[in-house]
Write a structure and sequence with these properties.
The structure is a single chain. The protein is of the alpha/beta class. The chain has nine helices and 16 strands. The chain has two domains: 7-309, Glycosidases (TIM Barrel, Alpha-Beta Barrel), CATH 3.20.20; 312-407, Immunoglobulin-like. A hairpin with a 4-residue loop joins strand 12 (358-361) and strand 13 (366-367). Helix 6 runs parallel beside helix 7.
Length: 413
């Protein structure tokens, strides 16, 4: 059983599918959220983008409409990414959205929209900072190769700046439900920083990429091992972007296949974790049509099968040599997740040796044929019969993850 952290954090264990948003100045060149670092753009040139940032089509309610239609129940926004640009009205640096032609507080607008809908808000904050003169860039992971002209590297001074920004975000925008640190490559451990967040935002779940172990882990991209049948042992929020190349907006992005994303979502949620799926809005504030369409398709799948994630993971019980299934349980109902593309039209659920009262393919609502059978692979000898799901429409459902609901009067031991 995954440990929990008190009543204030129950939201994290109930609202388990969320929207990640990577957005900032990097949407203007539309290549990658780390374009400054990856293309070695001098800071003096990159920071000129602040004069062009004017997302006149940004409407937080449109973002939230897209998220909620897909079944998502919380959102995490990149308040400050590695480039140091801040999407809120911070008093700590002029490198912020109020100094752009737009001159409106993005975090504030999103926070208000979330408040109206009762949607938990999370904030991402990068420890690495390519703009602040005191951040000690030393060519570690995702750092500049060294100080730029005029820099005065001083980690203590930078952490003072960081604490002031964290306090702003935790006091000026109502409830913050999640704090998403990224890239603390300084090696500094300081539990007092997370303690400050908790004192100001007692409902906030804090990830483990900051200054202590935090409350939950954050595996990303192609982390999933669908052959692993084990549930998570600690709170986990897996994440991935719709695009294969960038988390921010990329004008010629290559997108993951729908089934790949569905498989990752199913794999994380069926094992008791959360999933954060990322979009990269354009510079004008709109989420690209291609991303909206993927979200719509994922939503049609997820909203039909989401009840399968309401119970507890019990995926370690199946002795299936192909390891094609994960299981979740709610009361006497068992949910069979075909986590890997099925190899045949039948699934062996050994050692379950009882027939369900009803079997339903949640994706379509169609009945699923079941029987108890002796499998040839168990012979010779006197094997017992086990539950089999038959004539599954695997070819017709090749682009989604099928989930079958088995209803028992009394669930087998």
């Amino acid at each position: 059983m995954i440990p929990r952290y008190g009543d204030g954090h129950d939201w994290f264990f109930q609202k388990r599918f969320g929207l990640f948003v990577h957005w900032g100045l990097y949407a203007i060149p539309a290549w990658h959220e780390q374009i400054q670092w990856r293309k070695r753009i001098p800071r003096r040139d990159y920071e000129k983008l602040i004069r062009e940032f004017n997302p006149v089509k940004f409407n937080p309610d449109i973002w939230l409409d897209i998220a909620q239609a897909a079944g998502m129940e919380y959102i995490v926004l990149t308040a400050k990414h590695h480039d140091g640009f801040c999407l809120w009205n911070t008093a700590q640096t002029d490198f912020n959205v109020m100094q752009t032609p737009y001159r409106r507080d993005i975090v504030g607008l999103l926070a208000e929209a979330c408040r109206r809908r009762g949607l938990p808000l999370g904030l991402y904050y990068s420890v690495v900072d390519w703009h602040h003169p005191c951040y000690p860039n030393r060519n570690r992971s995702h750092e500049l190769t060294g100080p730029e002209p005029g820099d005065t590297p001083d980690l203590e001074a930078y952490l003072s700046f960081l604490r002031k920004q964290v306090r702003e975000l935790c006091t000026n925008y109502g409830e913050v439900h999640a704090w998403w640190w990224d890239m603390n490559v300084t090696g500094r451990l300081d539990p007092s920083i997370n303690a400050m967040i908790r004192s100001l935002q007692p409902k906030a779940m804090i990830n483990g990429r900051g200054f202590d172990a935090g409350d939950f882990s954050t595996p990303e991209r192609d982390w999933t091992d669908v052959n692993s049948m084990l549930a998570f042992e600690r709170p986990t929020e897996a994440c991935n972007s719709l695009g294969t190349q960038s988390w921010g907006y990329k004008c010629d992005e290559d997108y993951y296949a729908d089934r790949h994303l569905m498989q990752a979502i199913d794999n994380a949620l069926a094992k008791g974790g959360n999933y954060l799926l990322n979009v990269g809005p354009q510079a004008d504030g709109l989420i690209p049509d291609a991303q909206v369409q993927i979200m719509e398709r994922i939503g049609r799948w997820y909203n039909r099968i989401r009840e399968a994630f309401d119970g507890e993971p019990c995926s370690a019980m199946i002795e299936n040599r192909h390891k094609r299934v994960l299981l979740t349980r709610r009361g006497n109902d068992l949910y069979v997740h075909l986590a890997k593309p099925p190899e045949s039209t039948a699934i062996n659920l050994k050692p379950i040796a009882a027939l369900p009262r009803r079997a339903t393919l949640l994706n379509t609502g169609a009945a699923v044929e079941t029987d108890l059978t002796i499998f040839a692979s168990d012979c010779p000898g006197h094997p017992a019969p086990y539950l089999r799901l038959r004539n599954l429409p695997v070819n017709e459902m090749a682009n989604v993850v099928p989930v079958v609901k088995l209803e028992f009067d009394s669930l087998p031991a």
